[in-house]
């Protein structure tokens, strides 16, 4: 077994802004990872807008847009395998491979779109290739955070990582929409390839980061995956967290991933620039929420914030679906982003706190698999949207999520009291 040395934390910084950005100030390796994530996900969100706009502008079909989104997200189904790879191999080098692959794919797509040789099926294939750069690397990306900062700073560091996601939702779509308007889709693709290039360069100093193999060799793939499954489902709180992730990615995340161009173009009468600013509002809300969680640090009742924030998120989606006013819709989507930060930050934080280090890559691989139901859910919701419209579909989905969370809170009340400070991370077992 080769085990990375636990991170040695410098003195805790004083002042509110220093508390918010504590992990960036105290851990140089995490700082490099954070900057790389900023540019990697900036590229992801920019490509999401550009390719989604291209697909809907080309086909005019909500269902074909849903198919494209489902295929792009399909690599999430590789979560269990990705978790095993994360536990067995050098995680920093895995991220280097992911950034290099994403850069290559975007450059090829840029050439094909520029030459007019990118029909719908090729855009779908490009989306799949980008998904292969993003999703299988997620367990390694998340477990590296714990490797670099330790348990005490995990909530702050994950909140800072969530800030990355929300900053890129603010910057990426706004820039993507503006570039489509100014340069066309082909020009936007060429310019946006720079995001992945910077991510690759920033990761390079981490290529020799300590390798961590947290289990003995000789186990089969099936045994490795099974041990992660047993860890989660042997712990009632961890299983509840994973179940919330699963249900949220069935009912609501597909709405955001697939149907925002429809809300923008059909319901609100916005162009590509307007779509970018609509997504920017969500990103701004999420950025504020993540800053609040980062400032709280290692706070109590993480479970209550996770469940309550997710329920508020579902409620605000219902209100957004009802709204026909552009200003109100912008404000509501900012609220959606604010509430979603509790879900986005704390699902990973709770799973890492509730599980032992030896299997954390595989546990987060199961989380990626739970997120990976999104492609199938997207197709399902796309078919429903063809009949009921995206507004009616969103209202039903948000209501079902809120009802599910209310039932789970009654069934597993200890999740609401969990703060991440038990004597053992597995103290809550089958109670």
Verbal overview:
The N terminus and C terminus are likely disordered. The two termini are 33 Å apart. The protein contains 19 helices and no strands. With 431 residues, it is mainly alpha-helical. Helix 5 crosses helix 10 and helix 10 crosses helix 17.
Q: Which keywords apply here?
A:
disordered N terminus, disordered C terminus, mainly alpha, 431 residues
Quick take:
The protein is 78% helix and 0% strand.
Q: Please provide the ordered H/E string of secondary-structure elements.
A: HHHHHHHHHHHHHHHHHHH
Strand content: under 5%
Alpha carbon gap, first and last residue: 33 Å
Q: Poorly predicted ranges (pLDDT <50, ≥5 residues)?
A: 1-6, 422-431
Principal-axes geometry comes out as: globular
Largest sheet: none
Task: Write down the overall mean pLDDT.
Answer: 79
Structural class computed from helices and strand pairing:
mainly alpha
Total helical elements: 19
Number of strands: 0
What does the radius of gyration come to? Answer: 21 Å
**Assembly context of the chains:** single chain
> What portion of residues is helical?
over 70%
Secondary-structure blueprint of this entry?
Blueprint: H1 16-20, H2 22-26, H3 28-59, H4 62-73, H5 79-88, H6 91-114, H7 120-134, H8 138-149, H9 154-203, H10 221-233, H11 236-251, H12 253-258, H13 260-267, H14 272-296, H15 302-322, H16 326-354, H17 360-371, H18 374-411, H19 414-417
């Amino acid at each position: 077994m080769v085990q990375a040395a636990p991170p040695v934390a410098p003195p805790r910084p004083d002042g509110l802004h220093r508390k918010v950005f504590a992990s960036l100030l105290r851990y140089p390796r995490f700082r490099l990872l954070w900057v790389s994530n900023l540019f990697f996900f900036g590229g992801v969100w920019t490509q999401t807008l550009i390719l989604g706009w291209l697909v809907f502008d080309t086909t005019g079909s909500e269902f074909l847009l849903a198919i494209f989104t489902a295929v792009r997200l399909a690599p999430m189904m590789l979560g269990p395998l990705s978790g095993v790879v994360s536990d067995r191999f050098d995680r920093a080098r895995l991220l280097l491979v992911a950034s290099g692959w994403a850069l290559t794919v975007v450059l090829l797509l840029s050439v094909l779109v520029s030459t007019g040789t990118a029909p719908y099926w090729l855009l779908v294939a490009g989306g799949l290739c980008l998904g292969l750069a993003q999703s299988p690397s997620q367990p390694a990306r998340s477990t590296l955070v714990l490797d670099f900062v330790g348990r005490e700073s995990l909530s702050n560091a994950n909140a800072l990582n969530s800030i990355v996601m929300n900053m890129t939702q603010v910057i990426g779509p706004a820039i993507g929409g503006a570039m489509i308007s100014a340069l066309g889709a082909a020009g936007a693709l060429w310019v946006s390839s720079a995001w992945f290039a910077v991510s690759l360069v920033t990761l390079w100093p981490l290529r020799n980061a300590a390798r961590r193999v947290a289990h003995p060799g000789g186990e089969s793939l099936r045994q490795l995956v099974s041990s992660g499954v047993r860890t989660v489902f042997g712990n009632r709180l961890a299983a509840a967290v994973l179940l919330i992730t699963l249900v949220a990615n069935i009912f609501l995340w597909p709405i955001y991933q697939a149907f925002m161009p429809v809300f923008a173009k059909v319901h609100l009468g916005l162009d590509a620039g307007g779509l970018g600013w609509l997504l920017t509002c969500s990103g701004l809300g999420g950025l504020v929420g993540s800053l609040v969680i980062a400032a709280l640090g290692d706070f109590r009742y993480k479970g209550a914030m996770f469940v309550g924030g997710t329920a508020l998120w579902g409620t605000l989606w219902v209100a957004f679906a009802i709204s026909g006013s552009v200003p109100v819709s912008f404000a509501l989507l900012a609220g959606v982003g604010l509430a979603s930060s509790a879900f986005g930050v704390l699902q990973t934080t709770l799973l890492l706190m509730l599980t032992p280090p030896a299997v954390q890559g595989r546990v987060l691989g199961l989380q990626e698999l739970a997120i990976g139901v999104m492609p199938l859910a997207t197709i399902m919701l796309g078919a429903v949207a063809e009949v009921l419209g995206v507004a009616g579909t969103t209202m039903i989905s948000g209501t079902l999520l809120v009802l599910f969370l209310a039932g789970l809170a009654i069934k597993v009340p200890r999740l609401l009291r969990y703060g991440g400070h038990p004597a053992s991370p597995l103290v809550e077992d089958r109670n």
